[in-house]
Each structure stands twice: as C-alpha cells, then as structure tokens.
Amino acid sequence: MDQRLNMQQLEPNAYKAMYGLAKYLGATGLNATHQNLINVRASQLNGCAFCIDMHTREARAHGETEQRLYLLNAWRETTLFTIEEQAILAMTEEVTFISKHVSAATYQQAVAALGEQYLAQVIMAIVTINAWNRISIATNLPLSA
C-alpha cells in the first residue's frame, strides 16, 4: 500500500492542533491504561493498522498484558476488564460508531463508574484517537518498522 499525501508536511498547523489535543490529554487525570485501551479499541474498530501497531506497542510498554490485548475485541466475553474499563470500552465503541448514537444505558453506566469529569476526559480521548485514525487511514500511513 502506497502512502498518499503527507498530512504533517502539507498541513503542519493541522498536526500542531492535533498534538495540542494529545498534550491536553497528557495533562488530564486519564491514566495510561485507560488511554491505551481507548486507543487500541477505537483503532481496531476503525481498521487503522498504523494506529493498532503503534498503540499496542505503547500499551505493552506501559505494562499491558498480551492476554488483555488479544482479547480486547471480545472484552464483553471476559472477566479481565474492570467495571471502569468496561464502561470506557463501551463508550469507545459507541462514540466511534456515533451514527448509532451513545445509548442512555452506556452513558449512565459510564457516569456511575467514572464520574462526569473523568468521563469528559475519556470522551475527548475517544474523539482524538478517532481523528488520528481517520488521518492515518485516509493517507495510508505506513507501519513503522
């Protein structure tokens, strides 16, 4: 697969704005495990090979287990994820597939498990990785070696 245009080179201010979102997320209370789960799961759902590769590497570097990474696409069928992580993964799926809307049940479960402030940070993390996925997919960003 050939890379298409280089968005970072052609529109550096757009990349700067995206990095601003990443900087914001780094300054929130969002923990690395939750950020990694959001990044990997949204990237799986969107079929973004570049992002799946990058974020599974990051997750492993932060101590995520192979078992949880392998079973992330079947998280509902396991007991490996905490109540908070389940709420985050459900929100990730529903925000990523936004045309189906975020259900009241998923939203209420997330508020109960995370609180409104943390949920707001989770939503911003989901929005951010979905934007990165779309940039990567649209431009055929190649995998890192």
UniProtKB/TrEMBL annotation:
MF terms in GO: peroxiredoxin activity
Domain Carboxymuconolactone decarboxylase-like: 12-94
InterPro entries to which the protein is assigned, alphabetical: AhpD-like, AhpD_core, CMD-like
Superkingdom assignment: Bacteria
Family matches, as Pfam families: CMD (PF02627)
NCBIfam families named in the record: ahpD_dom
Protein name, UniProt field: Carboxymuconolactone decarboxylase family protein
Organism: Hymenobacter montanus
